[in-house]
Structure formats: C-alpha cells, structure tokens
Amino acid sequence: MSTDRYPFREIEAKWQRVWEERKQFRAVEDPGRPKFYCLEMFPYPSGRIHMGHVRVYAIGDLLARYKSMRGFNVLHPMGWDAFGLPAENAAIENGVHPAIWTYENIDYMRSQLKKLGLSYDWDREVATCDPSYYKWEQLIFIKMLERGLAYRRRSTVNWCPSCQTVLANEQVENGRCWRCDSEVTLREIEGWFFKITAYADELLAWCDRLTGWPERVITMQRNWIGRSEGAEFDLTVAGRPELKLRVFTTRPDTGFGVTYAVLAPEHPLVDRLISDDAERRAVAEFRAEVARESEIERLAADRPKRGLRLRAKVVNPFNGAEVPLFIADYVLMGYGTGAIMAVPGEDQRDWDFARQHGLSIVETVARPAGWVGEAYTGDGLKINSGFLDGLTTTEAKRKATDWLVERGIGVAKVNYRLRDWGISRQRYWGAPIPVLYCERDGMVPEAEEKLPVVLPRDVQLSGKGGSPLAEVASFVNATCPKCGGKARRETDTMDTFVESSWYFLRYCSPRYERGMFERTAAEYWMPVDQYIGGIEHAVLHLLYARFYTKVLRDLGMVKVDEPFTALLSQGMVIKDGAKMSKSKGNVVDPDDLIRTFGADTARLFSLFAAPPEKDLDWNDHGVEGASRFLNRVWRFVVTHQPEIVATPAGRSGGAPSTPDGLAFRRTIHETIARVTEDIERDFHFNTAISAIMELVNALYAFETAARDRMPGGERAALLREAVETVLLLLGPFSPHVTEELWEHLGHTQSLFKEPWPTADPAALTRREVTVVLQVDGKVRSRLTLEVDAAEDRVQGLALADEKVRPWLQGRQVERVVVVPNRLVNVVTRS
Ligand SMILES: [Zn+2]
Ligand SMILES: [Zn+2]
Prior knowledge:
Elements: H1 8-22, E1 35-40, H2 51-69, E2 73-75, H3 85-94, H4 98-115, H5 131-146, E3 150-160, E4 165-167, E5 172-173, E6 176-177, E7 185-194, H6 200-207, H7 215-225, E8 228-237, E9 240-249, E10 260-263, H8 269-273, H9 277-291, H10 295-299, E11 307-315, E12 322-328, E13 339-342, H11 348-356, H12 393-406, E14 410-415, E15 421-422, E16 424-425, E17 435-438, E18 442-445, H13 473-476, E19 477-479, E20 486-489, E21 493-494, H14 503-506, H15 519-525, E22 530-532, H16 541-554, E23 567-568, E24 573-575, E25 578-579, H17 590-597, H18 599-608, E26 616-617, H19 620-646, H20 659-680, H21 685-709, H22 712-730, H23 735-744, H24 761-764, E27 768-775, E28 778-786, H25 791-800, H26 805-808, E29 812-819, E30 823-829
Parallel strand pairs: 1-2, 1-22, 10-12, 22-23, 24-26, 27-30
Antiparallel strand pairs: 3-4, 3-7, 5-6, 7-15, 8-9, 8-11, 8-14, 10-13, 11-12, 16-21, 17-18, 17-20, 19-20, 24-25, 27-28, 29-30
C-alpha cells in the first residue's frame, strides 16, 4: 500500500455518512421545478456486484448529479429485481430458503452500492418479491384478464429443460435459454399469456418517435415486431375443393409464379391428405426426423431444407394449375398459417428448395439488364402474370389482392412476427397468478380485496420439475371467491419480467398503499428521462415495459404513452478479450478495487476507459492512472489551500490584467464548455475527463509560471477559480474527494448543491494584441493578432508581411526572435 495516496477510506466513509444524514438525495415532487428522472436498470440480487454494475451505476450517478447541478429536481432510485430462478436453484443446492438467500444478497449488495457513494434516494428502495409490491401486478393481472389482455391457452411453447420452465419467445436466443444457455425444446402445455400482439401496431409506430433511443435498439425492436403487409388466401386441394389451406404472402403479385406449396409437418390438414399406408409411414418417419431439429435449425437460412412430396396437389387460383404439395421442415406451425405458397422465381429459399426437388421455376418480375442472380426479390414490371402483366410490383400487389378479395378467396392482411408473451412459469420463486379453478364456476379471478395472493414460505423445492406450489396443500386448496365452494389455486407463477415492467412507476411513490402508485407522483416524475442499461434487454425488458405502460395507460392509470424518453445502452466490461466471468477467471472484484484505490478511482476509471456504448477493456494501468490523477488534484489543492482560501475574489473574479492570466482564464472556461458539451452530447464522458485532466496540467504549469510574473492577488484569484472549476466539473465523476476538497476551501454547502459552472463568453474570446515587426532591429510594420498566438504562426505571419518582405529581398534570414505578445525581430545576413 503506497503511502502517498490521499486518505480515500476516511473521506469516502465520511461523505457517505454525511450525505445520508443530510438526506441529500431524497427526491420530493416540486411542480415549480423541472424534473429529471434518472434510472439504471435495477439489478438481480445475485450476491455481489460486478464491474458491469459499477460501470452502469457510475454512468447513472454522473448524470443524476450533473442534472441536479444544472437545476433539475432529480429522482434517482434503486431497488431489486428480486424474483427469479437463481434463488430457487440455490435453495435446491444448499437448502437455504429463496427468501432468505434473496434478502441476504440484497443486504450485501446494498452495502456494496453504498460504498460506491451513489446518489440514490434509498427511501424509495423496492424489492419485487415483497407482497406489498407484487400485490399490484396481481391486481393489474385481473384487470387484464377482464379485458382479454391476459388469457390461458394450450399451445406449443419454449421449454428450458434445465430451468424446468416455459420461456417467452424473447427469452430464447439462438435456440438457447437466455438465462442458463441450455438448448430450448418445444412442449405442448397450458399456460398464461399477455396479449402484447394487441399493441403490435402501436409499439411499432412509437419506434419512430423514440428519438432518444439508440438506433440499433430501435431496429432490433422493429425487426422483432416484424410487421409485414400482404394477403391471406386459400389454396384448394385438387379434386377435393372442400379442403383448403390458408397461406399468407407479402407478395400476392407473384401468384402466377406459385409452382408448389408447402405445409408444416405438424399441420392438421396433413393427416386428411394421406392416401394410403405407405404415405402414412413416410409422413410419420418424416415428422420424427423433423422433431429432432430445433426451431432455430429449421428456420436457419443457410442449411438445406428437408421436404416430403405428398401425393395430393393444390390448385394455384391465379392460373388454375395443379401444383405439387410438400411437407417441409422450414415451414413451422407456430408461424403464420403453417402453410406457404412457394414462388421460387422471387424467393431465394423457395428457389433452393425447387432446385433441390426438380420443380419448375416461373419468373414473374422482369429482371434488370445483366441480372445473373437466382431468385430476384427486387422491383420491376410484371411478366408471365396474366392480368398483372406490365404493372409495377406495387401496383400488382394491390391489384392481385383486390382480385382475391373480389372472388372471395382471400383478404388483405397485416402480419406480425411478434407473438403473445407467455408469462406462466412452472417455478416457485415468483409472483402467484391470482386465479382459482372452481368445479362449478371454472376459472375465477381472486377477489380484489383478498390480494395479495401471498407466496407461501413452507415449500419443498426438489428441482424435479412441476410447479412446486402444487405440492403446498394450504396454498392450493382455497375457497372460490364466487360461490364459496372448494377451488384450486393456479400454481404457476408470473415471469419475473412482469415485475420489471413497472418498477419505475412504483419508485414514484414506493410506500403508497392504496394503489400501484400515487397518480400525482407518477404524473410528476414520468416518463423516465434517462434510462441506462445493457443492450441484452433490447427486445426483452424494454419491449415488455413499453407494452405494460400502454396497458396501464389504457386502464386510465398513467398519462404517458412510453416509459423511457431516452435510453443509453452501455457496453460490457471485458478483460483479456472476454466478458468478465467466474468460469474464465478474469473477474475483477469491485470490493478489492474499492479497498485498494477507493470508489472515486473505480468510478473515474470506468467512465474514462471507454465511451459508454462501447465495451470497456479492463486494464490495471488505467486504474492506476485514474488514481494518480485524483492524487494529483488532491496534492495541488491541499498544498495551495492557504493561498486559495485567503483570496476573497472567488470564482467570479474580474478579468486578469496580464496576458498569462487572460490565457489561463480562457483555458478554464474552454474546459467548462468542453466538459459540458461532452456530457450533454453523446455522453462522451471519457473526453470530458481528458479535458479536466488537461486543465489540471495547465493549473500546475500556471502555478509555476505565475510564481514571479504576476501580481499576487491575480494569481491567487485565478488559482481559486481554476481549482473550484476542477472540483465542480470532476464532482459528478468522483464525488467524495471533490466534496472533501470543496470543504477544505471553506465552503459549508455541499459541492452538489452548487450550480454547474457556465463558460464566461468574455473569457472565451481571444484578446488581440499588436505586435511590432522589426527587421534587424528597425520597426518596419505592425501586426494585430490574438493573445498568445503560437510562435510558428507569429513567425510565419511576420515573414509574409507585405511591409516586411521588401526588407528581406536579397538577404538571408538568420533567425527570428519572437517576444510573445510584443515583438518579432527578423535578423538577416546578406
Ligand atoms: Zn434455462
Ligand atoms: Zn365457484
């Protein structure tokens, strides 16, 4: 442990205590002041914070403190996304109850966050596993049930064999579980859904209006919602007009190019089309093969498609041709209608399949000159298309749709890729779904006055599968709220993403007991002005929260259409080229870092090492550099404290009288302008810190240079202005050391109650001086230029001066003497 470090331990503990005693970050609604709701995605209480947490909270804290200094009434809360599987799995492994495990983790992580000195209003802390929290989402669940926005159905869902539960589509990434990375399988199961598809149009439309969001997140949401316009129509089975298969296409204009059709192997029509035992066996065999493939494999563009030709054919309604019918792995029952028309001329996947199976290909769009591709998906004039010939693609789409509608064969249709959000989880540690099943009344919601339906504590967690709640007789056996008879409680719990879909609203009035949140508080604070969190939630949490907010709006509870005005998605923290993880052994423990260098250094480094949206590559030298810088600031202020405190001038001291003084003051104010702009625009915290570092270098240089050359009062006033500016600008990055030094300078009010400095326009203008130009000691001209112009520039201007040049003719310039801001003497030799 080096001894030349400033006493960060004492300082950090002291200010964390003082801020808490003063309730400095308590947020109170104040309609007279503009508000700023600054929010970082709340953590899962896994046990310990990691460097990724330090990074995202340092960003949030910087913005919260900065906005507060800019005059905003800031709300900056923190809480815990406390339900979820790790607690339950830990319980199965170690026999600790999930509640105990969770609350112990929360206590420990809270103490870690407090050691970072984050400006949270801890009075607003919430934990989503608390019945006083989830009670309200149970109430909303019942209201959604009444409106058909929550429903139960049997369907094929994603099943994680390791987590032993259903997953929503958003929770499956590349065929794997978002949480545990196991391969996801499909399973037919009864479960609860939220009807997010009812909001597909609006969720999509608002993508264009979320201008404060990163474009890549918006693009991911747009693609996930996946709106496509087209037509849906029937193909009839040849010779059996009573059998129809419904298909959707975005390209009804290509109807004349339909040379075959495909059904999903699971399509219910398949069994009715089978003509004999041989075909039945072939179909069964094919289905078994397909069942071994994952959904992702089946949809992958780059692998060969497997298909089985059926004996039945279908009729292309556009030209009456009978075309082959297949079942193939690349058509899935869960997507669209489970059947497609195939147009190999204009669809690459169909082209590949057609070539593989020797099917005919009809081009229905004229190719551009020199086209050498295979399927052509671009626009062009229609060919080989009967009544559509000669039309553009757009015209033909409309006309083909009209034609289908007129004949009663089809309809215009908008399709979405988005599917309803499956929220049933067959696990224990979640919010109970507040419904019962009565023998007489069927499914009945719990009576509102009986909420919350509390998760029972006495449960056996075996990890053997099945909802653990089903084994808790005292929970399962209940009374029907409708008839008072015997009823059985629902034993699935809600997806934990339901809790995180509205926690930002609960923060507005976290202790409110008469509703989910207090209306006036939510109206004042919402929407969140700046949300900060990882890109991994681009289509998970961020989509669910948008949906849930719109549901609450339509229930008349909130006025906002969207929860988050602006979003910052920070990159990961990596080390040795990989994301920090226990298994890779490249984890840096924030506790160690804080113990060795202090929280201010940890925060400064994580803000300095990379722009926030980029990955942060960990390096120990960078941490040491950040520590050295803070020590350098500390030493300067402590050393010069007597001189600075003695000066009465303060920051608004008058204009300096000397060129050195003017130049230094300009540096101070240029730094204010740069740092402010870097924070405001694109969150360039790293370059903001560089600017502050440069100012500190300039401060050291000025102090040395000004020791003899400047009136003492002016020197002291400038030192004070510079030092106070450094502390104010650096405060939101490294709050403890700056607050301590601020106090050293004699201030009794917190640094964070000071207004953010503004650049003085008078200090920024470069003053001009007149410089005398001599040739061999004789005055030949004068030059007006800015104070402290660079020597090269002054030389160049002098030698190029019109009145100087004639005196240089036929002579050689031996040297040029520049006396800054006064004169230039050109010494020549003939
Ligand atoms: Zn899993
Ligand atoms: Zn009943």
